[in-house]
């Protein structure tokens, strides 16, 4: 199951989530506060050794702000980490002539 399918499974409006631009229609003070909050959450994430990068953390926070269940999101993150990464396609070589 890919990431968008898992968001659909969580009942998330993926078109809305994927189209929301961070900081859109935000006054400078609100943007500064949001940035500081993300910095603090990222610092805590690093202390807890979650392995989440800043972008992923900001997406997860935005999804929580939209009303998704944080425990369900955590389960999706764990599942995505369990799934093997798709391996690159093997190069094919034409059969050699004898």
From TrEMBL:
Pfam family, one: MOZART1
Family classification: Belongs to the MOZART1 family.
Annotated protein name in UniProt: Mitotic-spindle organizing protein 1
Organism of provenance: Acer yangbiense
InterPro entries: MZT1
Cellular location(s): Cytoplasm, Cytoskeleton, Microtubule organizing center
A GO cellular component entry from the record: gamma-tubulin ring complex
Record's keyword terms, sorted: Cytoplasm, Cytoskeleton
Keyword Cytoplasm: yes
Major place of residence: cytoplasm
Coiled-coil annotated residue ranges, if any: none
Highest taxon of the lineage: Eukaryota
Any single GO BP term: gamma-tubulin complex localization
């Amino acid at each position: 199951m890919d990431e968008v399918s898992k968001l659909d499974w969580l009942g998330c409006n993926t078109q809305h989530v994927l189209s929301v631009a961070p900081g859109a229609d935000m006054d400078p003070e609100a943007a500064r506060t949001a940035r500081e909050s993300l910095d603090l959450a990222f610092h805590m994430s690093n202390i807890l050794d979650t392995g989440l990068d800043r972008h992923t953390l900001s997406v997860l926070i935005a999804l929580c702000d939209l009303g998704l269940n944080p425990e369900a999101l955590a389960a999706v993150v764990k599942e995505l980490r369990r799934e093997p990464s798709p391996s690159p396609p093997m190069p094919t070589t034409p059969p050699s002539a004898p």
